UniProtKB/TrEMBL annotation:
<feature type="domain" description="ABC transporter">
    <location>
        <begin position="24"/>
        <end position="264"/>
    </location>
</feature>
<dbReference type="Pfam" id="PF00005">
    <property type="entry name" value="ABC_tran"/>
</dbReference>
<dbReference type="InterPro" id="IPR027417">
    <property type="entry name" value="P-loop_NTPase"/>
</dbReference>
<dbReference type="InterPro" id="IPR017871">
    <property type="entry name" value="ABC_transporter-like_CS"/>
</dbReference>
<protein>
    <submittedName>
        <fullName>Inositol transport system ATP-binding protein</fullName>
    </submittedName>
</protein>
<dbReference type="GO" id="GO:0005524">
    <property type="term" value="F:ATP binding"/>
</dbReference>
<dbReference type="InterPro" id="IPR003593">
    <property type="entry name" value="AAA+_ATPase"/>
</dbReference>
<dbReference type="InterPro" id="IPR050107">
    <property type="entry name" value="ABC_carbohydrate_import_ATPase"/>
</dbReference>
<keyword id="KW-0067">ATP-binding</keyword>
<dbReference type="GO" id="GO:0016887">
    <property type="term" value="F:ATP hydrolysis activity"/>
</dbReference>
<keyword id="KW-0547">Nucleotide-binding</keyword>
<dbReference type="InterPro" id="IPR003439">
    <property type="entry name" value="ABC_transporter-like_ATP-bd"/>
</dbReference>
Length: 300
């Protein structure tokens, strides 16, 4: 089918996932802040072993939807289901307890602390009891090495500051940490936004590995060129509304770009620019005539 900006469809899950219960699903979710409507009637789902790309330009409502999914804000309207059961989160901890982990752009890491300590930040393994309890460095080191190796990164030293890693490697630490602590759904907030081409490719490979391990991945981005190669389905937002969910086979990269930007707005802008160019051409012609008249008068 050819997707247009007026399309509002819900693409079914890929054939291999048909009939399975989504790990996470929202139905007709809306969010208002006073009189401001941030989201209106948004529906989407993600299955195990699937990458769902949530696409939209700045101000489309992606951040608000992330906060609803991760338990920061409750939805004003609509249903939120985890493995087919209705839920209502009161905090991000509730979402984590249900296996929904969010990796934000800032990654929630302390650059001067070691990789192992950042990996277990807030959930440190300990040994000993009572006043003799202390950080179990050996367990942290071994676990961090093992989990990073599963993601394809062999660490030289887990005691090195995490700030010495590249941007893509820090993303890998955050993803591996979320998977280790039981994430079933991984929500990635613009993971490639501040990365170069090579580092973005590294992160996309880690996303593919997470999918292969059976996780449901929600990849939030405004960069279609990063989302299209890795995504299975695409939900597009524009100004808090949804254009629908599309399977990769049903929509081209160019159509996704058009819907993200707002096709009607781009078309209207194109007409305005043509009108400006026409007006500029008339004005330039008139100025040329005036110039020639003044030049003739000066000679006379």
């Amino acid at each position: 089918m050819s997707a247009t900006v007026s399309s509002r469809v819900a693409a079914p899950a890929p054939p291999e996932l048909a009939g399975t219960t989504p790990l996470l699903e929202v139905r007709d979710v809306s969010k208002s802040f006073g009189s401001v409507i941030a989201l209106k009637d948004i529906s989407m789902s993600v299955h195990a072993g699937e990458v769902m790309c949530l696409l939209g330009d700045n101000g489309a409502g992606k951040s608000t939807l992330i906060k609803i999914l991760s338990g920061v804000h409750p939805a004003s309207e609509g249903e939120y289901l985890v493995e087919g059961k209705p839920v209502r989160f009161g905090s991000p901890r509730d979402a984590l307890d249900h296996g929904i982990a969010t990796v934000y752009q800032d990654l929630a890491m302390i650059p001067l602390m070691s990789i192992a300590r950042n990996f277990f930040l807030g959930s440190e393994p300990t040994r000993g009891v009572g006043p003799f309890r202390r950080f179990d460095l050996e367990t942290a080191d071994r676990t961090t090495r093992d989990e990073m190796a599963k993601m394809g990164i062999l660490l030289r030293d887990t005691d090195q500051p995490v700030g010495t890693l590249s941007g893509g490697e820090r993303q890998c630490v955050a993803i591996a940490r979320a998977v280790y602590f039981g994430a079933k759904v991984l929500i990635l907030d613009e993971p490639t936004a501040a990365l170069g081409v090579k580092e973005a490719g590294v992160v996309l490979r880690y996303i593919a590995q997470a999918r292969a391990r059976g996780l449901g991945v929600i990849f939030i981005t405004h960069n279609v060129h990063h989302a299209y190669p890795i995504g299975d389905r695409f939900t597009l937002l524009n100004r808090g509304r949804s254009y629908g969910t599309f399977a990769k086979d049903d929509v081209t990269r160019e159509e996704v770009v058009t819907m993200m930007a707002g096709g009607e707005e781009l078309e209207e802008l194109g007409h305005e620019l043509e009108e400006f160019a026409r007006a500029d051409g008339l004005a330039a012609g008139r100025l040329g005539e005036v110039g020639r008249e003044l030049e003739a008068e000066a000679r006379g």
